Every structure is written in C-alpha cells, then in structure tokens.
Amino acid sequence: MSVVSIFSGAYCAGRQVAQAVAQGLACQLMDDACLLAQVDWHSQVPRISQAQAIMDNLTIFEQYPRERDRLLARLRMGMARLLGHDNLVYLGYGAHMIPPTVSHVLSVCLIADAKSRIERAMRSDGLDQETAAASIKRADDQAMAWVGYLQGRQAWSSALYDILVPVDKQDLDSTVKLILEHARSVLLMPTKASMEAVDDFSLAARVETVLADQGQPTGDLRLEVD
Predict the structure, then answer these.
(1) Which among 218, 224, 225, 220 is positioned nearest to 67, based on CA atoms?
(2) Helical segments of 14-58, H only
(3) Could you say which of 52, 112, 199, 224 is the most buried, measured as most Cβ atoms within 10 Å of its Cβ?
(4) Are 197 and 102 in contact (CB under 8 A)?
C-alpha cells in the first residue's frame, strides 16, 4: 500500500479529505502533531513547543539558524520513522519533508480561490469577511515561507505534487475518489528501491542532526546515500 501525503491551504477541506481518504484506504491518518510526537526531545535540544513554532512560522527563526537547523533535522528523523508505515495518509506541513526518491508516496495539494476560502471560513468559524481574509493571508504567508525554504518553490506550485486539486471546482466526494484511484495504482506500490530510499532518508537525517548539534550549518545541506 502506498503513502498519501496531503498539503492543504487553509479552509480547503484538508482534514475532511484526509479523513475520507484514510477511511477509504483503511489506513492510519497522521498529521504534524503525530510527527512532533515521533521526535526524541532531549534536554539539550529545543522544546517541542519551539518545533511547533517553526512549523507555524519559519521566518521567526531566521535570526537563529542553528536552532532552526537542529529542529528541522529532528523533524526529518521523525518523518523517516513515519514513512516506516507503508499504509498511511499524512496531512500537514511535514509532507514537504518527504524526499521525491520515496516513490511510493502520492503527493496531493488542496487549494481553492480566495473567495471560496473566505466564504468557508465565515461559514465554519463564524468569522467576518475581513477577519477571514486576514487569517487566510497569514496562513498562506506561513505556507509560502515553509515550502519556499524546504523546496525552493511556491507552496502551490504544481511541480511539487502528483495531484493538485482546486477544491472550489469539485465536491468532496469527487476529490476523495480521485485521490483513492491514484493511491490504489500499482505504480505507487512500495518497491525495494523506494523502501531503500526511506532508509537513506533516515540515515541522512541522523547525520544532519549530528552536524546541526555540533553547530555546523545544514540549511543548504542535501545528503545523498549510495
């Protein structure tokens, strides 16, 4: 069984879609909170609250590159552990930590136009239009900073995903059906090479963690294991 990673814009039905896909595949649904729980937090590293903060707003760590690198290295280690599950739906920012060499991952992005997202925010959370628009902009800015740093691209770039779904143009059932059809494809079944890629990712993350703890910059480090 493949892994489905879902990155969703704010108010784009990410949770609903992910839950339905996980149910359809009869597999676990994990998210950024699950990723944080996978990390070994020792006394010499920043607290879990700081790890949550870096996912919420990466830009606040620009003045603290060492702490940023230490946190990101440990989050990558946590993601490597999660990828040990070969039957998984992942929802959240952590989706962008999965290397493309892990070929049994179906990468999905959910996005919609501003008007429909504002309307959803007003309807679901009881926000007024101005507050809803400001909340969405703030979330989009955070997403752009996170994806831009990790991937060097805009958050909603189609080049980053196997499937990019405009959820304002099709309903929930159609979106879930589309993802399930692709997730069940034989092309996304784990292979020896893709599972070895998970092992390589795990090893690289451990090396990165050691370097970061030694104070060596890792922001531009991309380790490859033969």
Answers:
(1) 218
(2) 14-25, 32-38, 48-56
(3) 112
(4) yes
Closest by CA to 171, choosing from 32, 17, 36, is 17
Whether the Cβ atoms of residue 46 and residue 71 lie closer than 8 Å to each other:
yes
- For residue 41, pLDDT over 90 is answered with no
What pLDDT score was predicted for residue 51? 62
Instruction: Note the pLDDT tens digit of each residue in 178-212.
Output: 999 999 987 788 889 988 999 999 898 888 888 87
Helix axes 14-25 and 172-183, enclosed angle (nearest 10):
50
3-class secondary structure, 166: strand
CB contact burial 15-49 (16+ within 10 A = b; e otherwise): eebbebbbebbebebbbbebbbebbeeeeebbeee
Let me know: does 22 contact 28? Beta carbons within 8 Å.
yes
Give tens-digit pLDDT for 8-34: 999 999 999 999 999 999 999 999 989
